[in-house]
Structure formats: structure tokens, C-alpha cells
TrEMBL record:
<dbReference type="InterPro" id="IPR015943">
    <property type="entry name" value="WD40/YVTN_repeat-like_dom_sf"/>
</dbReference>
<comment type="similarity">
    <text>Belongs to the WD repeat SWD2 family.</text>
</comment>
<dbReference type="Pfam" id="PF00400">
    <property type="entry name" value="WD40"/>
</dbReference>
<dbReference type="InterPro" id="IPR037867">
    <property type="entry name" value="Swd2/WDR82"/>
</dbReference>
<keyword id="KW-0853">WD repeat</keyword>
<protein>
    <submittedName>
        <fullName>WD40-repeat-containing domain protein</fullName>
    </submittedName>
</protein>
<keyword id="KW-0677">Repeat</keyword>
<dbReference type="GO" id="GO:0003682">
    <property type="term" value="F:chromatin binding"/>
</dbReference>
<keyword id="KW-0539">Nucleus</keyword>
<dbReference type="InterPro" id="IPR036322">
    <property type="entry name" value="WD40_repeat_dom_sf"/>
</dbReference>
<dbReference type="GO" id="GO:0048188">
    <property type="term" value="C:Set1C/COMPASS complex"/>
</dbReference>
<feature type="repeat" description="WD">
    <location>
        <begin position="142"/>
        <end position="175"/>
    </location>
</feature>
<dbReference type="InterPro" id="IPR001680">
    <property type="entry name" value="WD40_rpt"/>
</dbReference>
<dbReference type="GO" id="GO:0016070">
    <property type="term" value="P:RNA metabolic process"/>
</dbReference>
Amino acid sequence: MASTPMDIDDAPSAAATPSLNITRTLGANVPSTTTVSDLIASFRPNKLFQRDDLKEGKPQPYVLSIDFDDPGELCMTSESDDTIQIYNVKDGRHDKSLLSRKYGVKLAKFTHTSSSIIYASTQQNDAIRYLATHDNSFIRYFEGHEGAVTNLALHPGADNFISCSVDNTVRIWNIGTKQWIGKLFLNTPYLSAWDPSGNVFAVASAASGSILLYDYRSYEKGPFSVFDVAKARGPADSEAAFRGWTKLEFSNDGKFLLLGSRGDGHFLLDSFDGSLKAFLKKPGAGTRRLGAGETDGGNMESSGECCFAPDGRYVVSGAKSDLIVWDTLMTPGSDKVLEPAHVLEDKREAAVVAFNPRYNMLATADQDLTFWLPDPNA
């Protein structure tokens, strides 16, 4: 994967373009319109992408985030060696590599235009950067945070996004201007998410054990609802209710809110009253990655090891090995514990997980990126 420098970076040394050994294309023998419920148990690792563009002796980087563009045709990772990698999903091939050596990169996300992205810095300053990938030029810097950015959440239908930071602020931005258009002061507001309509956004504060919901049209008035995760935690231990939160996401039907945790399970909450629908119990050890905003332990954060499938019915989670799937239509036990519906076997750790919004495929990563597709013979 030959690297392409951004306009402010030093040019990389020449490197041979490696072979990815791709043998199958997306959707072979499986129509892309098949429902997730018909295929979820048949997902198998299908394509493995390894960074063999690295210099000899250089350690394999970690994948910090995975994102898909709106049409589902491009997959992007941000990695710990200050690179952004972009893959063509349909062709199953690596497309380009971008460097951000000066400022680092994490939490890279496509805007609603597939040729432009935003991402957070990891060094020198805490600005968010807006990049055009077709010519590797920076369009804008979003400056204002005075601490590391822990989350970026793009509005589902507009060119606005939310950023959270360890500086105890949440900022709302319009992609067309470098100045933030809204700011909230909160204690450890490390995660955020938009509901599918874009009219409501949620902010998760692990230190207070709560999730705050805001009306986007009047967020300056404060939250219209506060969910007490510590109270609604069910069988989870108290530590999981106050630390180690990794992901916040609404289901596509808006009924549920997923709160990922690096503890022994994830929280599935009713998005209207905050009650616990189920505690998604992990059958084994979780991943090594830290929760949003955490710095202890010597490991790295990720953009989250769990997510909803596009139909909102299934929750998929990574683990030390295997991929875990819960069916939210199943009835949890009397203690609110919901056991996995499927365990998809894989020897590799899945520390970052993302489901394609348009196709029946998903991506997982720790150090190597893996595409998962339904096996028509399963």
C-alpha cells in the first residue's frame, strides 16, 4: 500500500506496493438486499488486509477506528502509525494510504461526501481536521478544544457534527465554518450519538454514570432527559456503570440506545425512558482497548468494539477472540441478562467493529483489518 503524503507532511520513503491476495468480491452468490436476520449466523471472515507496506522491524500499528461512507462502498481506518487507510469494499482492495505524521490521527469519519473526511489529532494540538481525500488537501481546521478529543458524531442528514473532549466540553460544529456553533460544559462528556432523525443527540458521562438527551433545536436549554445508568445497570458491577465506556449508538429505529463497556457486558437501554432492556453478557474476556477518555493501562482507545446491525435488531461485539451477536428480540432472563444468540468463530481479537450501512458485510480490526461476509454454504 503505497503511501500518499498530505500537503503538510514530509514525503514518505519509497515502498513497494504489496499484494492483498484478494480472491473474492463483495456479495458473491449473496444478494445485497437479503435481510440481516437471514444471514447473521453465517458471517465468516472473508478478507484479511495486512499492512505489509511497513519498513522492516517497524511494529504493526493498531487500528483506532473504522468507518464506512454513506453508500457503503468505501471503508476507512485510522491507525496508530498516523495513517489513514481507505479500502474499496465492492472490489475488496486497498485504495489509498494517507499520512498525518505532524498531527497524528484518530476517530476518522467520512462526511456525507465520500471524498472528504474529518478526524481528531493525537499530537501537537487538539484540533479536528477536515480533509479532501481526492487531492489530499486540508479544507479547514476546527480549533477550540483544550484537551484530547474522545468522540466525533456526524449528524445523520446535515453537515454538522458533535465533538467530545477531556476538556469537559461538548462542541457542535457546522462543517462550513471553523468556529464552533454550540458548546456545552459537562463532566467527562466522552461519548455522543445522534438519534436517526437528527433531532435529538445524547451525551454519555461515565464519571456521573449518566446519559443526557438534548433537543438539537434547543440544546442550550439543557437536557430534556437524563438516564441514570448506575441505577439501571441491572446485573453489571458498579465499576462498569461508572467507567470503561466505549461506544454510544442509537438503533436505526430509534427505540434503543447501546452503551458499550469494556466490562463483562454492554447496556441495551430504552431510548425513551432509559430503562435497561437487557445487559448483553459477554461469554468471555473483552478486548484490551481502553474506554473513551481513559489513559491508564498502557493500551489504546478505539472507536468502539460494538455496534448495531443496520436493521437495529442485532448487536455485534468484538472480544479477545470470536465475534459475539445478540438478538434484541430475544427475551432476557429475569436478571435482565441476555445471552448471545450467535458466536462467530475467529482467532483474532476484534477491538474495533463497524457494520456496513448498505451491504451485508462488516469490518473488524485490532492490528489487521478483516472484512466479514455471509457464507452462502453455511
